[in-house]
Amino acid sequence: MLGDVTVLDTRALNRATLARQHLLERADLGVLDAVAHLGGLQAQEPQEPFVGLWSRLREADPATLDALLTARRVVRMHLMRRTVHLVTATDALAWRGRHQAMLTQRMLGVYRRELAEVDLGELADAVADLLADGEPRTAGEVGKALAERWPGPSPRTLGDAALTELPVVQVPPRGLWGRTGGALFTPLARWLGAEPHPPSGTGDLVRRYLAAHGPAATADIRAWSGLAGLPGEVDAVRDELVSFRDARGRELLDLPDAPRPDPDTPAPVRFLPAFDNAVLGYDDRSRIIDDAHRGLSVAGTRFVLLDGRVAATWTVADGVLSVIPLRRFTRADRTAVGEEARALAVFLTGGRGRVRVASSRT
Which of 102, 259, 269, 287 shows the smallest number of beta carbons within 10 Å? Predict the structure, then answer.
């Protein structure tokens, strides 16, 4: 206790995170409900969400997610942190307006000088007119078409900026199981048959984040969403929340009835895809990854959790799933990691893959 406030140590926060993320025990959830609960899946690499769901659900048939994408019940779009996320259609419409200012600012952080003479409102109108024929286009095609009107900036800059200012989605086959190909964009409103909602500060984003990531500080919510100005949203729901402290003395907020397991609860081996929000969704990531390895979390590295913490990385190449420890493995560690790796290899390759667990680092 710190005064009359309970202190949650790193292990307590770890177990809470694993429980919320369905990494402590695989859930009997449908894919759509899982995507909704998690507040979206990071999908910068198109095939990674399939691994994220496989590690979290008892049933994670890739065909189910494919069907949701083609039926437009789940969409791929730039959202949190201006990275590509897989979100439900409902969340896409509810959250896109809330993220617009952040998306614009992050885009201008890259292209501000090139776009100094470009009116972003006119740019959004122009790309809306371009895409009004219903034909999805690549960012390159959009940029080349707009360059006739704005010859100063590069087509790449114009394409990226225009597709930031107009709410758009990436359409299938991008993101389907085993499919490759560039991103094709179409307006969100056309794809879903409804306009995005106006920005809302009702606190729903805070509730949703805490359900999947809590207990957490407001800095953690900002790190996940990329949004500034969150105190208003926190204040809108503060009376509904409970408060803790972490070992650093930060205030942590949480939903009162959300799971906070005993810190000694056993945690199974889990394989995480690149950029998974179980790691990236926090400002303070020490609950799941050592500071010495934090840099790997933004490099597209895939992680292996052992006793709930990042303990190894993994790759797949030429039909071989390779595990590279980040610390010394005991014999029991190698056995447990190997078993989960073989199950994942079966999922990824239909049983044709092999597994290699490298020697432990000293």
Answer: 259
- Which amino acid makes up residue 245? R
Q: How far apart are CA 350 and CA 334, in angstroms?
A: 23
Nearest to 303 by CA among 348, 336, 270, 261: 270
Nearest partner of 250 among 286, 288, 277, judged by Cα: 286
| Contact (CB, 8 A) for 323 and 304 | yes
Order of strands, edge to edge, in the sheet holding 242-246?
Answer: 7-8, 242-246, 251-254
Evaluate whether 78 touches 103 at the Cβ level (below 8 Å). Answer: yes
- Is residue 52 within 8 Å of residue 13, measured between CB atoms? no
For residue 234, count other CB atoms closer than 10 A to its CB.
16
* Cβ-Cβ contacts under 8 Å for 44 (sequence gap 6 or more): 83, 84, 274, 275, 300
| pLDDT per residue rounded down to tens, the chain (362 residues) | 444 779 999 999 999 999 999 999 999 999 999 999 999 999 999 999 999 999 999 999 999 999 999 999 999 999 999 999 999 999 999 999 999 999 999 999 999 999 999 999 999 999 999 999 999 999 999 999 999 999 999 999 999 999 999 999 999 999 999 998 899 999 999 999 999 998 877 789 999 999 999 999 999 999 999 998 788 889 889 999 999 999 999 999 999 999 999 999 999 999 999 999 999 999 999 999 999 999 998 889 999 999 999 999 999 998 899 999 999 999 999 999 999 999 999 999 887 779 999 876 54
- Terminal Cα-to-Cα distance of the chain (whole angstroms): 37
CA distance 8 to 252: 9
